Amino acid sequence: MTNLSVAALRALSIDTVQKANSGHPGLPLGASPMAYALWNNVLNVNPKTDRNWFNRDRFVLAAGHGSAMLYSLLHLAGYDVAIEDLQNFRQWNSITPGHPEVTHTSGIEATSGPLGQGLGQVVGLAMAETHLAAKFNKAGHEIIDHYTYTICGDGDLMEGISQEALSLAGHLKLNKLVVLYDSNGITLDGTLDMSSSDDVKKRMESLNWEHILVEDGNDVAAITKAIEAAKTSDKPSLIEIKTVIGFGSPNAGSNKSHGAPFGEEGNATTKANLGFNHPPFTVPQEVYDDFENGIIKRGELAENAWNEKYAAYKAAYPELAKELEDALNNKLPELELPKYEVGTSEASRITNKIAIQELAKQVPYLWGGSADLASSNNTMIADSSNYSAENYGGRNIWYGIREFAMAAVMNGIALHGGTRVFGATFFVFSDYLKAAIRMSAIQKLPVIYVLTHDSIAVGEDGATHEPIEQLAGLRAIPNVQVLRPADGNETMEAWKKALHTLDKPTILVLTRQNLPVLEGTDGKAKAGIEHGGYVLADTPTGKLDGILIGSGSEVSLCVDAQAQLKEKGYGVRVVSVPSLETFLREDKEYIESVLPKSTRARIAVEAASPLGWGALTGLDGDIVAIDKFGASAPGNILFEKYGFTAENITSKFLNIL
Amino acid sequence: MTNLSVAALRALSIDTVQKANSGHPGLPLGASPMAYALWNNVLNVNPKTDRNWFNRDRFVLAAGHGSAMLYSLLHLAGYDVAIEDLQNFRQWNSITPGHPEVTHTSGIEATSGPLGQGLGQVVGLAMAETHLAAKFNKAGHEIIDHYTYTICGDGDLMEGISQEALSLAGHLKLNKLVVLYDSNGITLDGTLDMSSSDDVKKRMESLNWEHILVEDGNDVAAITKAIEAAKTSDKPSLIEIKTVIGFGSPNAGSNKSHGAPFGEEGNATTKANLGFNHPPFTVPQEVYDDFENGIIKRGELAENAWNEKYAAYKAAYPELAKELEDALNNKLPELELPKYEVGTSEASRITNKIAIQELAKQVPYLWGGSADLASSNNTMIADSSNYSAENYGGRNIWYGIREFAMAAVMNGIALHGGTRVFGATFFVFSDYLKAAIRMSAIQKLPVIYVLTHDSIAVGEDGATHEPIEQLAGLRAIPNVQVLRPADGNETMEAWKKALHTLDKPTILVLTRQNLPVLEGTDGKAKAGIEHGGYVLADTPTGKLDGILIGSGSEVSLCVDAQAQLKEKGYGVRVVSVPSLETFLREDKEYIESVLPKSTRARIAVEAASPLGWGALTGLDGDIVAIDKFGASAPGNILFEKYGFTAENITSKFLNIL
């Protein structure tokens, strides 16, 4: 049965690619045996209930370009993926896009494709499992107890993020994480040895992983045995499975079989070589039966058993069960955070520290940490312990100096469910993890990024540490909420907003330097954050001569300039824009109420790239911003030298009048 | 002498930090012995001629936060860094910014600080050396023959880019690359074992590196011996040197000594512990003498010897010498590239292929490659061989699936001088290397990025492979030239512009899909690229009712819409903007000539985030752009579904009129 099922999986995959006339047949042909072994012989999931069973095993196809194989597997395993869906592979509005997308298709646990990030995501999935198990399991009541699997390729392992993620997993002894490495010795451009000579076994051992070798990638029994062995290791395991890319096809073993359809004839030859003599998209009933008797039956029994187990748990530990269910439902209490009074001032990274302490008390499922900058980002939860191999229940994550993996890991944690997670670094180093923020956004994951030291006010560390373009770059990502609060009240509301936002990541952009509390934020900040921008202080003269628009640390300069202009007889309004991209998406009426079109004398002020503000200032306004790199000097001196003073704003305003 | 000199280096470093009341004393105190050993006993540089001697050894302080030590070294070694400069550490307009900057200070070979990138840069420096040696050396005339050194810390090695860079270096057998690893077991937040358990020796061996251990980081003789041993290895070497962070200070061995000044008292105690009893910024003459007799004399002799060697080479191989000198001077011939005629069409990634073949012939010092997408990016130089450990003279670089390292490596290659280098990947994966593009820009390096598959027109691969926000993000970086050409002629001019640009990186943003050649580009494209934007096709009716602004693949849609609007009686101008950020920096007169302020009916069209275009369209115009993620379907269908049709542009234009 096994042989026929594997052949069917291979055939279905290349039929899918051929029909789309686009896609990657190479991986499916090489990796179908390992996928079959894992899915039909080991994986504990219940296709009938899809991803509703919380304690299911998690599987991510890190090598997402092999999506045709995954969709074929989903079909065979009884998920809601029909033959017609395979036939619509890579077509408009299909549930079978070019790379797997968690938002599109039943049975998919993660969006994947951008190389290396799948490994970060499975590390996050596995971390979430350990944390929840530590929090909720009781002796005899192991309600959180599942494995996390992935299939990755050479591309995943060559990406730097793999090192970060695997190193973290080894350090944390995530022994329920099993990576199947499709080792075919081929990359897109040619043989792997053209670009790499790594000793993978030695590398994995250096990272405290178990390395298991399976010499024959077609040996389903050997692969199954290796997976079972990996499950009992006290370390995370990588099973290196030697395969032939495009196995059975005319270009088997060559990069030519990687990423393009074979044509009708090529497919026919391949299927003949595989001994699979069925028309396209035809699956023998025995194959369906095989999956029915494998993954489907096993999964149903497993979920039923778990449901009983959970009922017993709930009876024995009703409060814990409620806490878990609240976490799974992202249930929030009315969040209570301190208010700030005019006359005081505080760096928003310090406000952040206070927010995190308070929120950690009110939201027991909140956890997180920093990429080795906790002491600067102020992200440590004071009354919790460190999350570690010895203490998976700790809520302070030490991501290490691994920004990119931190973000991908957070995506995995968010995909898992059951917690809310945050991660922190300096704002300028958002560059290192940007590709994973994109993946948070594509997957609609409510990950919280705490990025401090948000402008040239960083000061002495100089140009390499001073963000300029990062705000524009992040605001341009679809489905990302970038919040740059202006004072303590806006910062507290930003944190609340972050927790209330469930369909996108939130980026909190915070200062190193003190921010004076502004008149009006205690009261207006909540709605202001909601709209992205709001009238903080209306014209003090009754007539509206112009508008000063600022975000974050520059709003107080606008307020000062407003006072200077008032003395000169001009009435200007100050608009605080904690979230430019949110504000730009508001309806026209609201925007008009904040920025009346008839008022053309407008200045936007932000200690960052001007890119983006032109949409608010138009052809007649001006922007006080930065179009060169920062410098090394005390932050207040830089602000002055770069023109971030009320005097400069005032003078620019008078210029455009 | 050694002991006193090391103590002086330590003392000077902490004096420097103390005076600034900002900076990192921990690394200098731990790593001064290795820095001294390398600089005074081994390094071949000539401080008197600074970086003019081409064959000098290269040194990069990857752990750039230890800048106080580097500046102190530069001072002691006789570079143009005075005590006053140390006293101005981290101050406005000083030559001693918070992190080393190659553009600011004599003797600095690279800007460093963002962790891990220093390792990428030294790999690039070493690659450049091997390549030039292979091209220019002759038996008995080894005019290119130097080593590349760096000091890195745990942070560098934990970053993913380190894996990419070290793996590439091991694969390429860059045996003249020596990394000194300041192994102090401490990170910013605490002990290293809180976040990592890596076995560094095993890791380095897995990457085909020599690993040498020095147990006592204060043993200058042992360190010197280890460096000499590393120099004779046939592999790149990492010397792991066990040190004590903040050695001698009250918080020695703790993360508390990492990143903040100790105070006057702390400094006094430290210096007493070091047995260095001199006032702040006081260097005993014996120490100056020691450096005079070490690095300074050695360097002068070495350069003199090399000058003789080079004279002999030049006599024996005048043509090669001229070729080398031309390369060092970035001398370009009149570049000749094919012109494109209206009626034809071609994907700009294909035009790119043609450009590279032609330019490779005309510019013998041009080399480059792709991060394993050469077959898609079309970057292979057909009539050259592959750069490899067996053939360092090859011009096709196989960077591997290591985008971030590719970019950092290119920065190193550009820093070295003697070649022009390009690197390629899909545009969406610019996310992976963005942090290194920033470093190209800060360092004013003329690196060329070839980024193809530039919009949702990628099609079937779907959202994960379709750039949206990347254009905005890259345009916002200071000192970056982003060129998104509209057709074959603009693409050829973009490549020329890239080669003629010496003070910043150029990013070529190219299509997967065909672009029709537009009327007017053959003639206007050169100046148009120069200005960033230009009138491609003026109003056909004589009166100017509005302006359609586009970049890249969307310009042809604007041209089509222009025709449709003409039929309806409207005269609109089409403006091609291959480089938005360049155009925005043009003087007001030029901008007015292209976009007269009185013409407010403007539509910008770009298949990407709208962010940035508002500066041209103002409050009365509109933008046809994308504010959500892409999808998986054939590219032409996506263009239609996302509104990139002449009809939609026409209709939007009529709406705003």
Helicity of chain A, as a percent range: 40-55%
Distance, first to last CA of chain A: 81 Å
Query: Which residues of chain A sit in consecutive blocks of at least 5 with pLDDT less than 50?
Result: none
Which pair of chains forms the biggest interface, and how many residues does each contribute? A-B, 121 and 121 residues
Strand content of chain A: 5-15%
Domains of chain A, number: 3
Description:
- The structure is a homodimer of 657-residue chains.
- Chain A has 657 residues and is of the alpha/beta class.
- The first copy, chain A, has 3 domains: 2-302, Thiamin diphosphate (ThDP)-binding fold, Pyr/PP domains (Rossmann fold, 3-Layer(aba) Sandwich); 345-516, Thiamin diphosphate (ThDP)-binding fold, Pyr/PP domains (Rossmann fold); 526-656, Rossmann fold (3-Layer(aba) Sandwich).
- Helix content of chain A is 43%, strand content 13%.
- Chain A is built from 25 helices and 20 strands.
- A 6-stranded parallel β-sheet of chain A has the order 10-9-11-12-14-13, sandwiched between helices. A 5-stranded parallel β-sheet of chain A has the order 1-2-3-7-6, sandwiched between helices. In chain A, strands 16-18-17-19-20 form a 5-stranded mixed β-sheet.
- In chain A, strand 4 and strand 5 form a beta hairpin.
- The longest helix of chain A has 32 residues, at 285-316.
- The radius of gyration of chain A is 27 Å and the shape is elongated.
- Chain A starts with a helix and ends with a helix.
- The mean pLDDT of chain A is 98.
- The interface between A and B is large, with 121 and 121 residues.
